[in-house]
Each structure stands twice: as C-alpha cells, then as structure tokens.
C-alpha cells in the first residue's frame, strides 16, 4: 500500500517555492508509532525549512520496500527515510536486498531514543513484576511471546530476554503489535515487548501487567513500572531509535539543512512533550 | 545529534543487531 496521507504546508512555504516538496517515507502503516513520529517532526521541519513536507507510507517486505525507495532515489534530499531497528536487521533477514545497508544511506540525525515495555497477560501468576519474572524464568520456552514482525524490536527484545534468562523464546507472529495486544489482553498469549505508546495505555487501564521497562531509568510517564535491572535483569537493556536518512551522494549542505530542521523540530517544546509521551528518553546513556 | 554522530551510532548498532539476529535463529524465510 502506498498512500500519501497528509501534508504540512508551512506558512513560509511561499518564500521558497522552487525548493520543492520533501517526502518522509515511512515503512509502516499509518497510525503506528513510526508514523506518529514522522508526522510530528515532519510538520515542524516543514516550518523550519519553509518547504512542504508530506508523509508517505510505503509498507511491505519488512520495511525494505521503503528503504529501497529512498536508497535508490535521486540524492537531492527530497526523499527522506524514517526507520528504526528494522533497517539494521534487514540485511540479516533478507538475502535479496537491492541496496547495501552499510553504504546506501546518509544519516541526517536521530529523532528519538526509547526503551521498550515488557507487558504480560493479567492471568500471569504473582503479585508483582518480581513474581512475573520468576514465572518467566520457571516457564522458559513454555511461554509464548508475541511479536509484530520478523526482525522488529518486538522480536529482538524477547531474544535478548531469552539470552539473559537462558532459554530460546517461542513466538507467535502478528502483523503489528496492535493485533498482538488484542490477543495478549484476551490471554491467548503470554508476553509482548512493545513501544510504550501502544502498550502503556493498556497497563494503565488495568488490562495488562507492566512488568519492566528495558532502560536504565524508569519512564517518566510510567513511574510505577520498574526497570529490568530493578527486578534482577541487569543485562536486559534494549533501546531503539528513529533516525532520518537520505540517499548516498546527497550534498553535504543539503544534509546540514535537513539536520538543522530536524534539530529545530525536536527542540520544539510541543514536539518534545509529545515525544516524551511516545516513550522518548533523553540520551543513549540513560536509555 | 549530528549526522556524523548518527553515522557512528548506526554503525555500532548495525553490528549489535546483526549479532542479535544471528544468535536468535530467526530465519530469513520467516521474514515477509
């Protein structure tokens, strides 16, 4: 599915009419976490540059269609990819990529860095996170983790949990974390690692257990959920980030302009507040 | 974050994620 779903027409757009439209290519469906981040910064980048910015969702093949779109685009800064860990896992999963992940892109900068939230079905026995982790250790491969796509954060985080606890996790595959959350709430699967933006509301509503956050510090918006280290999983630190990329060969001054616009966007108080709501943490050190 | 710092983080995490995927036994055929 390829669809241009929104545009942000800045007040200053008329000042540079020849500069053209910038397209932020999102490898995932509208309404998801990455899409939300793209729209949030896209609007502010548009204002900063005085150029229209549109968001285009190019989904499929684990995000590699979108990756390729930008990798093979004209290197003029008009096509910008936003992606996260899946950009890095793709070369290990897909043998037929038509771009070289190591060399095809010019990084623009990071949008946000965030941990994941380990959540569990309400019927997991125990009275708190330490009990739940003891149950996970005891059950090992008997339990089922949901994931929202092969090679995504929601699969790699349980892999790390398995490495820490000494078992190989068993997965139930879903098309995105939304359907996985539905089955988790229904008690049909046991656990899910997910972005706070989608999982936390269900914890706060009492539909799921919030077991741990995979960062070194607790999330401001979820102060009652312990870090993994606090419940004995000190080696479980997993953060992911959203970054912006353009095609290799894009002029340095264009990259610098996009970086400046991105910095302006993520420095905006409104954007900062919304990114915090998406689980943003301040730095890689604290993440 | 500067583009250069992003490049360094990208390179570092590419190695980290590659190792994690390879240790996981996740098969390419599972990817859709």
Give me a quick take on this structure.
The complex is a heterodimer of chains A (287) and B (32). By secondary structure, chain A is an alpha/beta fold. Chain A contains nine helices and ten strands.
Task: Describe the overall structure.
The complex is a heterodimer of chains A (287) and B (32). Residues 1-18 and 282-287 of chain A have low confidence and may be disordered. Chain A is globular. Chain A is of the alpha/beta class and 287 residues long. Chain A has helices at residues 33-49, 64-71, 85-93, 129-139, 153-165, 177-185, 196-204, 252-267, 269-277; strands at 2-8, 22-26, 53-58, 79-83, 105-121, 144-147, 170-173, 191-195, 208-213, 239-247. In chain A, strands 1, 2, 3, 4, 5, 6, 7, 8, 9 and 10 form a ten-stranded mixed sheet that branches. The longest helix of chain A is centred in the N-terminal third of the chain and has 17 residues, at 33-49. Chain A has nine helices and ten strands. In chain A, helix 1 (33-49) links the parallel strand 2 and strand 3 (53-58). The mean pLDDT of chain B is 83. The A-B interface holds A 61-62, 85, 88-89, 91-95, 101-102, 106-110, 150-151, 155-156, 159-160, 163, 168, 173, 241, 243, 255-256, 259, 284 and B 1-3, 6-7, 9-11, 13-14, 17-18, 20-26, 28, 30-32.
């Amino acid at each position: 599915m390829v669809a241009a779903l929104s545009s942000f027409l800045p007040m200053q757009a008329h000042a540079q009419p020849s500069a053209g439209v910038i397209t932020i290519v999102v490898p995932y469906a509208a309404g998801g976490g990455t899409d939300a981040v793209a729209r949030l910064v896209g609007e502010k980048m548009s204002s900063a540059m005085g150029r229209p910015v549109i968001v285009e969702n190019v989904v499929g093949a684990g995000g590699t269609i979108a990756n390729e779109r930008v990798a093979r685009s004209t290197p003029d800064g008009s096509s910008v990819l936003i992606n996260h860990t899946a950009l890095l896992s793709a070369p290990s999963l897909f043998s037929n990529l038509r771009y070289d992940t190591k060399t095809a892109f010019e990084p623009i900068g990071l949008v946000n860095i965030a941990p994941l939230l380990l959540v569990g079905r309400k019927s997991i026995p125990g009275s708190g996170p330490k009990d739940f982790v003891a149950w996970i250790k005891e059950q090992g491969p008997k339990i089922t983790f949901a994931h929202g796509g092969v090679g995504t954060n929601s699969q790699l985080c349980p892999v790390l949990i398995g490495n820490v606890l000494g078992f190989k996790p068993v997965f139930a595959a879903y098309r995105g974390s939304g359907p996985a959350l539905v089955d988790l709430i229904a008690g049909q699967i046991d656990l899910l690692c997910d972005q706070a933006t989608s999982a936390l509301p269900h914890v706060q509503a009492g539909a799921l257990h919030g077991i741990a956050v995979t960062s070194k510090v607790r999330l401001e918006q979820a102060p009652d959920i312990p870090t993994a280290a606090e419940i004995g999983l000190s080696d479980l630190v997993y953060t992911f980030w959203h970054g912006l990329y353009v095609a290799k060969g894009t002029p340095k001054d264009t990259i610098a302009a996009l970086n400046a616009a991105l910095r302006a966007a993520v420095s905006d108080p409104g954007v900062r507040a919304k990114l915090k709501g998406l689980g943003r943490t301040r730095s890689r050190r604290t993440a | 974050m500067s583009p250069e710092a992003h490049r360094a983080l990208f390179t570092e995490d590419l190695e980290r994620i590659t190792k994690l995927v390879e240790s996981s036994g996740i098969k390419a055929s599972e990817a859709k």
